[in-house]
Structure formats: structure tokens, C-alpha cells
Amino acid sequence: MTIPIVLPALGDGVESATISRWLVEGGDKIAEGQPIVEVSTDKVDTEIESPASGVLIELHVAEDEVAAVGAIIASIEAAADAPAPEPEAAAAPPAPPAPEPAPETLAPAPEAAAESDGIRGTTQKLTRLRKTIASRMIESLQVSAQLTTIVEVDVTAVSALRRRHNAVVAAEGGVKLSFLPFIAAAALQGLRRYPQINCSVDMEAGTVTYPDAEHLSIAVDTERGLLAPVIRRAGDLSVTELAVRISDLAERTRSGTIGVDDLSGGTFTITNTGSRGALMDTPIVNQPQVAILGAGVVARRAVVLGTEGEDESIAVRSMIYLSLTYDHRVVDGADAARYLSDVKGTLEQGRFTLGDRSTATGAPR
């Protein structure tokens, strides 16, 4: 019995995929559940598994060609004792979701230095993902009025919190407490006080939409390109929960096992270019969002404390630059500055919820 292999639904708004690489050839014996082809969409690469055991008799779509969801991409002659698989319904694709390309990086990707000699002096075809990132970045700059406001933040209190609780969090949650989940928690608290930073704009309809929750996009640097997986209702999570979710999303995104639905629906983005040593940057807004927060490297340096002419002193502090790029069509500079000041105050006070209790550092100022 001949069984068709169709391109399954790959997430909301995904109507097609490119056949990146066939893992089998005509005449190969394949087992049910065996990965047979790698496909690529605008958001993610994934593998398609065989629905039954048998012999591959025909490939209907060649590598680098595009197939629609529900299209037959291959056929197999099922083994005599193999039951016919249940047909998979290919639902009509819904309207495309908000694009979620990742403008910058979350954490170091695998080192590419060893591969540089292999590409020097060559010309290579752009991948579909790279073309998508390029077009969306250009589109973002063309459709919105973007500018960046930067503040300097003393995160010495957060540094003390990390030292105090890192061992417990690592034992209970399996992750280390970096500065990023604290920055995310402070940013999310600020979004609740300044919802105009956590909105989307539709100029054709003349509307601004304010969601009822904070869905945080986290920029992740992968070997295939930059992606922005989403933490749903991130404003409801503690610092520890954010650390676990960020680590999980980054790992699944880099391994290529992230689901397409995890790559859409964000309302605000954070990018951590400081993980690569960048002092600061001016990230590009993730349309149709209206703002993105960039975190620079945390550096220890001498800082003047106290009131000028009264109780001044010099101390070594942990300092970071935070950059907020925002869409001036709907966000005024004063609102951006107030939001950043709010995030700065939360971080410098060092009062966060780690797990089920609020925690303060008591670090000297």
C-alpha cells in the first residue's frame, strides 16, 4: 500500500516550508518515526518523521524547493504488516502572526573561529532564515521612527543577590543566576507601570493595541541565525522562573527543537549583547512591537557616590548600560526615559522575587 507523506502543520501562520535536506533516498528502507527530511521556515528548522515503516519510493519535492502545508512531499510503500497511518488534517493556515526575528544576541553561540577558514574566499547562498531576518530588519527601519535612549545602572545590589542565591538556584532549578533574568524581571515590572512600552501599532487601521500580559521575546544567537523565542505571561514569573525559562528556550532554539509557536506572539524584546562583551548597542525594534531593551556588559569600575560637595566617596561598583530603542510614532522620549529610570531604580534597589519570596540584598550604597 502506498502512503503519502505530507508536509504537516508547522505552527500558526506558517503556510509553507523549504526542503533543506533529504535524509533518505529513493529505495531506502525506513522505520516509522524515523526522521526523513529537514525543512526550513521563516522561523525555525525542523525534521519531519515517517508516518509508517516501509520503502521510500518517490521524492515529490527536491531540495531547496518550497512546499505548501498539506502538500505531498514523498511516498512510501508500507510494509505488509504496517497499519495505515491516520491521515493528518492540514488545517487552513490562519493569518500570519506578529513577526519575531531576533535583532541581537542573548548569549554566546558556539565559537565560529574554527569555521572561518572554511568560508574565506567563497560565495555562499543566503539561507531562507537569513533572507527573512534581513528583510524584516530593513522593514522595521522603514516603517517606524526609531531612536535609542541609554542609561547607566549600578547593579552591585544584583551582583550581591547572585552570589547569595546562585548555589540554591543551581541546585533547585538546574541553572545559574546570570544578570539577564534580573534585568528581565525589572523590565517586566516596568512594563506594567508603563504599558505604552508594551504595545503594538497598526497605522493602517489607526489603532494601538495594549495586551493584557507581558510576553517577553528573548534574542538568541544560533548557528543558523538570530531568533527570538517567547516567554508567555513572563510578568507573572519570579527571577528564578525566568532564569529557567530563558535557559530552556535558548537551549531548544540553538538545538533546533524549538516549536514554531514559541517564536511568535511577543510584545517586548530583550537582547543581551553584553554576553559578547559589547558595552552598549542600538538594537532594532522587533515589529510590530514598539520597543526593545539592550543590555550591555557588566563591568566593575570606580564610581563617585554620595551628594556632590557633601558625602562624596569613590567605590568599585558593578555597572551596566541599558539601551531602549523605541518607536517614536507611539512612544515619546519622556515616556522612554521614565520607563528606563523605573527599570534602573528596580535594579539598583535590588528587590526581587526569587521563587516564592521577595529578597533584598542589603548591599551597601
From TrEMBL:
<dbReference type="Pfam" id="PF00198">
    <property type="entry name" value="2-oxoacid_dh"/>
</dbReference>
<feature type="region of interest" description="Disordered">
    <location>
        <begin position="83"/>
        <end position="121"/>
    </location>
</feature>
<dbReference type="InterPro" id="IPR050743">
    <property type="entry name" value="2-oxoacid_DH_E2_comp"/>
</dbReference>
<comment type="similarity">
    <text>Belongs to the 2-oxoacid dehydrogenase family.</text>
</comment>
<dbReference type="GO" id="GO:0016407">
    <property type="term" value="F:acetyltransferase activity"/>
</dbReference>
<dbReference type="Pfam" id="PF00364">
    <property type="entry name" value="Biotin_lipoyl"/>
</dbReference>
<feature type="compositionally biased region" description="Low complexity">
    <location>
        <begin position="83"/>
        <end position="92"/>
    </location>
</feature>
<keyword id="KW-0450">Lipoyl</keyword>
<dbReference type="InterPro" id="IPR001078">
    <property type="entry name" value="2-oxoacid_DH_actylTfrase"/>
</dbReference>
<dbReference type="InterPro" id="IPR003016">
    <property type="entry name" value="2-oxoA_DH_lipoyl-BS"/>
</dbReference>
<feature type="compositionally biased region" description="Pro residues">
    <location>
        <begin position="93"/>
        <end position="102"/>
    </location>
</feature>
<dbReference type="InterPro" id="IPR011053">
    <property type="entry name" value="Single_hybrid_motif"/>
</dbReference>
<keyword id="KW-0012">Acyltransferase</keyword>
<protein>
    <recommendedName>
        <fullName>Dihydrolipoamide acetyltransferase component of pyruvate dehydrogenase complex</fullName>
        <ecNumber>2.3.1.-</ecNumber>
    </recommendedName>
</protein>
<dbReference type="InterPro" id="IPR000089">
    <property type="entry name" value="Biotin_lipoyl"/>
</dbReference>
<keyword id="KW-0808">Transferase</keyword>
<dbReference type="GO" id="GO:0031405">
    <property type="term" value="F:lipoic acid binding"/>
</dbReference>
<dbReference type="GO" id="GO:0005737">
    <property type="term" value="C:cytoplasm"/>
</dbReference>
<feature type="domain" description="Lipoyl-binding">
    <location>
        <begin position="2"/>
        <end position="77"/>
    </location>
</feature>
<feature type="compositionally biased region" description="Low complexity">
    <location>
        <begin position="103"/>
        <end position="115"/>
    </location>
</feature>
<dbReference type="InterPro" id="IPR023213">
    <property type="entry name" value="CAT-like_dom_sf"/>
</dbReference>
